[in-house]
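User: structure tokens for this one?
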Amino acid sequence: MKKMYTNYCMAMNKETVIDQAHMRYERKFFVSELSASQIGSIIKVHPAVFTEIFYERSVNNIYLDSFDMKNYFDNAFGVDNRVKVRVRWYGELFGRVNTPVLELKEKHGLVCRKTTFSLGGFDIGSGFSADILKGVFRDTILPELLRLKLSCLDLSLLNTYRRRYYTSADGKYRLTLDSGLKFYEIRHSGNNFVNEIFDRQNSIVEIKYNVESDKDVKHVTDFFPFRISKSSKYAMGVERLNL
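Assistant:
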């Protein structure tokens, strides 16, 4: 898998690659005993002086997986080297999607790297199908090895959540706070998105930082009254919907 990913990167076309981030740590806290507003209050009094940046917005994802759900099972079994494939956009979940991106998230143990490609727009709603998304891929300049991989994947999950963004005063650590998680069953064709799971109780806090900042991260994580835990929104959605 690592060799295949390296080949993707070598073949990337500069017209479609938006960003290829360096390896970084991503640690998650799965929080069920506090509301999103309470978590936000804790973040704001953190001694690292986190301030809210950007604006709160909805994050939407279509996840793609193989027929045997390899990406899901790699996550469930804790496989060290794995790749997650999704199409992401912001704002309204249904209707016209104008600026989606294809994301490949490569993970090696606790560190990960994400590469994104800009895609053409599409409409999502009743009747949405894999053929529509494959048409978008077909009309986009992509590395041939990546295009081959995408042809072997199918729709596996649709989700959406609200995200808030924070950064520490020294700029070394970034936090995101995700709440209002919704999961939808999505099939190869004939979708109507009536099978929905709405998680009103749980939130996910994620801290992201460069590898060189790992030596000081305990000063940040130890302040929080919740523990670092494994938490994949993709795996959570698959399990909640019993896909």
